[in-house]
Design brief:
Strand order of the largest sheet: 15-16-17-18-19-20-21-22
Distance between the termini: 46 Å
CATH architecture of the largest domain: 3-Layer(aba) Sandwich
Number of strands: 22
Number of helices: 13
Number of domains: 2
Helix content: 25-40%
Low-confidence stretches: 1-14, 24-45
Shape: globular
């Protein structure tokens, strides 16, 4: 954690740094306070960011203001800023069809393909559910994933509902690349990182692997905190791969509060930054806390009310890391919290408690509330797993020898799926993801994804001759199971 210098106009009786130093939790955080005046300008005060806890637990290496963390989905606000810059340049329009600028854009739904706008892409209302395993498990390049979007089944009509979707941010990154003739990564470096002096910020994880200040990610397993390998998914980079430090992320929050201007240079117009900060899609409730009675998605940011104050924020979560960037524009306050432990919503505990003190209000027991919410969610998931386990028909066996299940199966969107004999059972491989399979009943087998603690059941299906010809796997819960068709040896082209 870090503490910030509170504005003179705040009603708090306690300065942040002493309070933050007393705060005991297994996380590291970052706070930025750009000053108390509501209008933008070069005269700003920001508390020096500080690190609390460990960058690497085993080595007892402390976190500092220059420790680098993957910021996960806070990346989305950078991608929408690139789009806004292109709107400023007359190369893009928020509300014209994407196909006007990128004719090759294609979704499963032909109507959506024709009508989806850049605004639709980045406010999560295209009708496409997450399909996260399509990019998380596989090794496709960004352009390969983009070309496969037309094979992913939607769950709603265009603009019918809010459905968070990382793939549409990947498409937004491809749109940036198409209009500029330059990679999304290079656009970030030239248009944002360099002007802001963000010298410890990197577009994708491979750029920072081996960096002496890169934080180690951790999970809690069986009561122990254990390190995990950092995840590289640069193919979906525009949705969540930027890595940065507290010292740099302060600058990003300050740019928002300065309405797109940095010193004498304007990076993005006030008009388009206002578009980026304005609600576009209502995030449906229920809202469990009276302090946050509503929430909406803007363009790469979420907008809500916190204890009567407008709050703009985006959080992030990727294997072993949880983050949030947040600001109150009317108050001219902002903060960033970066943590390297997956199993606790520490970033929001810190964020809310800081705002409570800045606002001079009685603190809410956010740590207790959010820990209980987290525990309830885990218990609910465990109960659901027990329910599914109880539904398994006991005493069944596979309907055929294991070698008859083994083979290569293909889906036009998700790509190849391999089933192989492993010991006395089976193993599944989808891209870079591999897991053992446990027999569930008859032709159904279960496998487990550890980081997000998800169980999946693969069901094999035969044809009229009794030969296994496909396997159905519910990789996206909001649509019917994904069907992988068995591939003949001479068909191996994907």
């Amino acid at each position: 954690m870090t503490g910030g210098l509170y504005p003179n106009g705040s009603r708090t009786k306690e300065r942040p740094v002493p309070w933050l130093r007393r705060f005991r939790a297994s996380h590291h955080g970052r706070l930025a306070h750009p000053g108390r005046r509501p209008r933008p300008g070069p005269r700003r005060r920001s508390d020096s960011p500080q690190g609390y806890g460990w960058q690497n637990l085993r080595k007892k290496q402390p976190a500092t203001d220059n420790t680098v963390f993957p910021i996960a989905s806070i990346t989305k606000s950078f991608t929408t800023t690139l789009l806004g810059m292109l709107v400023d340049e007359g190369k893009l329009d928020w509300d014209k069809p994407v196909r006007d600028f990128m004719p090759e854009f294609s979704l499963f739904d032909p109507v959506a393909s024709e009508r989806v706008t850049p605004r639709d892409l980045v406010c999560h209302r295209t009708g496409l559910p997450r399909h996260d395993n399509m990019w998380d498990f596989t090794e496709f390049t960004r352009r390969e994933i983009f070309a496969r979007l037309r094979h992913l089944q939607p769950s709603r009509d265009l603009r019918a509902a809010y459905q968070y979707n990382n793939l549409m941010y990947m498409a937004a990154g491809v749109l940036v690349e198409t209009l500029t003739g330059m990679g999304w990564e290079q656009n970030l470096r030239e248009r944002i990182f360099k002007p802001l002096g963000m010298s410890s910020t990197y577009p994708i994880l491979p750029d920072v692997l081996g960096h002496p200040r890169l934080a180690t990610p951790y999970l809690e397993r069986d009561g122990r905190v254990v390190p995990v390998a950092p995840k590289d998914f640069q193919s979906c980079g525009p949705a969540g791969t930027i890595c940065s430090s507290a010292a740099d992320m302060i600058r990003w929050v300050q740019l928002q509060l300065r309405r797109g201007k940095w010193g004498r240079r304007r990076l993005i117009s006030e008009e388009n930054l206002a578009q980026i900060h304005s609600p576009a899609t209502v995030i449906p409730g229920p809202y469990p806390w009276p302090e946050i009675p509503m929430s909406a998605y803007a363009l790469g940011w979420m907008v809500s009310v916190y204890r009567g104050e407008k709050r703009v924020m985006h959080n992030g979560a990727i294997d072993g890391f949880r983050t949030v960037a947040s600001f109150m524009p009317e108050r001219n306050w902002g903060l960033v919290v970066l943590t390297n432990k997956h199993d606790h919503p520490a970033q929001h505990v810190i964020e809310y408690q800081i705002y409570d003190r800045l606002l001079g209000m009685d603190p809410v027991s956010w740590n207790r509330r959010l820990k209980r919410q987290w525990a309830d969610a885990k218990n609910k998931a465990a109960k659901e797993r027990r329910k599914k386990a109880a539904a398994i028909r006991k005493g069944t066996r596979p309907t055929r020898p294991l070698h008859e299940y083994a083979g290569r199966y293909v889906h036009a969107g998700y790509g190849p799926l391999e089933i192989a004999r492993e010991g006395g059972g089976l193993a599944i491989t989808i891209g870079k993801f591999t897991a053992p399979m446990v027999h569930r009943s008859y032709d159904s087998w279960q496998f487990h994804e550890e980081i997000w603690n998800n169980d999946y059941t693969a069901t094999f299906q035969d044809d009229s001759s009794g030969r296994i010809v496909r396997v159905a796997v519910p990789l996206e819960p909001n649509v019917s199971p994904i069907i992988f068709e068995r591939e003949k040896p001479d068909e191996r082209k994907n």
